[in-house]
Amino acid sequence: MARTPIHLWIVGILALFWNAGGAMDYVMTRFDAGGYMAAQPPERLAMLNDAPTWFGVTWAVGVWFSVIGSLLLLLRSRFAGPAFALSLVGLVGSSIYTYVIAEGGRMVAAAGAGAIAFTIAIPVILVLLWVYARAMTRRGVLR
Predict the structure, then answer these.
(1) What's 140's DSSP letter?
(2) Which pTM does this prediction carry?
């Protein structure tokens, strides 16, 4: 097994914190946490209330496989790459509902620049994590 580069620990810890934020949003939303949901824009609440079951499944896959991928990266497992790939599949599915079917693009624009930045950052970071995990597997760092 190749020696573990310091950047693996940095990337893994940052990925875990980043994806924990997504997991927190998922849990707070699914458990209908009062104060958290009260702070959400009305457009998001309407979108979530009208969402079909398949949206919930793809959202869960996207969120939880990102967390799993981050943990697997820290455990130096070659399964980190496939976990991030499954997360991408979930993200695509949930994004189709959010931004195409439910017309959530208007919701993001109404929420401001911060929401737009997150909307762009989430898939970009996820793709970068997937590419990174694959590269570390090819280098023999992840087994």
Answers:
(1) T
(2) 0.90
Q: Is the pLDDT of residue 83 over 80?
A: yes
- Give the position of tokens 């949003």: 25
Tell me how crowded residue 115 is: count the other CB atoms within 10 A of its CB.
16
- Whether 139 and 4 have beta carbons less than 8 Å apart is answered as no
d(CA 72, CA 79): 7
Higher pLDDT, 79 or 111: 79
- Two tokens, residue 134: 């694959």
Using the structure block, give the residue that is written with the tokens 């079909």.
52
Between 66 and 48, residue with greater pLDDT = 66
Widest Cα–Cα separation across the chain: 51
8-state DSSP, 39: T
Work out the pLDDT band at 110, boundaries 50, 70, 90. Answer: low
Q: Of the candidates 104, 91, 97, 106, which has an alpha carbon nearest to the alpha carbon of residue 51? A: 97
Helical ranges in 31-112 per DSSP H: 34-38, 42-50, 53-74, 80-95, 104-111
Place of tokens 């998001």: 44
